[in-house]
Each structure stands twice: as C-alpha cells, then as structure tokens.
Amino acid sequence: MTAEDFLNTFVRYGYGPYFLILMSGFLFGIIRWNQLSKAGIGVWSIVAISFLIESVGSYLLIDTVPSNNPSFHLINCLHFVAYGWTFSKFAINPLLARIFLYGGVLLAAYSVASTFLIEGVYNYPTRAITVFNGAMVLGALFIFRDMLKQPSPVSLPRQSVFWFATATLIFYSCTFFTYALLSYYGEHGEYLPTWARYLNHGMNYYLYISYIIALWFDSKRSSH
Whole-model pTM above 0.90? Predict the structure, then answer.
C-alpha cells in the first residue's frame, strides 16, 4: 500500500480528522513541553501513543501483518501504564496516587499475558480492552471524588483535570455500549450500522479534543 492509498483509506473511513486531532495534540505537547506539569506530560503521552501507533505504526505494518489487531494489543499495554501514571499525578490523595501508578503497571502485565497466553497477537484483545474500559471508568470516578473532597479555587472549565476526567469517564462508559453492538452484530454476521460507526468516530474525536484542551489549560495553569 502506498502512502496515497493509506491517506485515502484514512479519509474514506473517517480517520482523516482523527489523525489530524492526534497529530495536533502530539505537536502541541512537544511545543509546550516546558510548560506542562507531570500530569500534563501524562496526558500528552496518552495522545502520543495513540498517534504513533494508530497512524504511523499502522502504516508501517499494513503490508506485513494480516490485521491491525497487534496495534490494539500494543496500545492497550502502553495505555495502561500511561493512564496509571496520569491518574497518579492528578490524584490528590497520596495512597490513591500509588494505587493508580502500580495498578497501571500490573494491568499492563495482565495485558501482555492475555495477548500471548489467551487471545493471541492477531486476535482482537477483547478481554484486555474490557478490563481497560472498566479501569478507566473507575479511575475517572475516583479522580472526581478527589476533586469533590478537595475543591480547587480555579473554576472547573479551566481545570485540566476536569477535561481529562470528564472525557475519560464519558468515552470509556460509551465504549461498553459500542462493544455490545459489535458483539451483537458480529454474532449475526452483520456489519455495524453506519450511525454506530459515526458515533464511535465522534466519541474518539471528543476524547482527544478534550485531552488537547486539558493540555492547553495545564500549560496555562501558572496564569490562573
């Protein structure tokens, strides 16, 4: 597949805007690196992992592997660590921060074990992604609990943690619904309806645009 074919595929299936959003977040984090907190660097790492593996990595592997499922396995593993780190830096409670950090590493180890011992590299990582989605929802809820117990003087819409936690909670809660649809239509040998695909694209746009906004406010936090 040529670079032109790859880009045409991205645009045809709605990945063009997604790619541009990821690239924007990736470049923004690099440009504002010195202004980012440790939590901000964590948010950037999540965006960077998605950008590098889902776009660049998928293109490099597209002619060498039968599917892009290996990319999902790799993203899962790296995102467990990146989200664990990010949650730990946003957490106010020190114990909760340690749980997030070590929990992310343990879940990454589970993801690797699931890949090689249970599901296989070329199969979709259903088990690991289900665990991942649940962990993200719980993590976001605990962050909100932290925010309620120790509120910041900065208004919510100007808090990086608010954008990060809200987007994480909404996106990964909706993902359960998406996977239920995939399972249902897959069992009946049918393709996912167009509206469901658009919903999935829209939720991905929302997640990473929110993360970019979180990066923006994190880089501006000293001026609040």
Answer: no
Look at the block and give the residue holding tokens 């590098």.
52
10 Å CB burial of residue 54 (0-12, 13-18, 19+) is buried
Answer yes or no: are the C-beta atoms of 143 and 87 closer than 8 Å: yes
pLDDT in tens, 127-149: 888 899 999 999 999 999 999 99
Q: 120: Cβ–Cβ under 8 A, 6 or more apart, which residues? A: none
Cα–Cα distance for residue pair 151/109, rounded to 1 Å: 34
Task: Look at residues 135, 90, 91 and name the one whose alpha carbon lies nearest to residue 110.
Answer: 135
Q: Domains of the chain, with CATH numbers?
A: 17-223 (1.20.1070)
| Contacts of residue 216, Cβ cutoff 8 Å, sequence gap at least 6 | 28
Rg of the chain over Cα atoms, rounded to whole angstroms, equals: 18
Give 209-222 as a DSSP string: HHHHHHHHHHHTGG
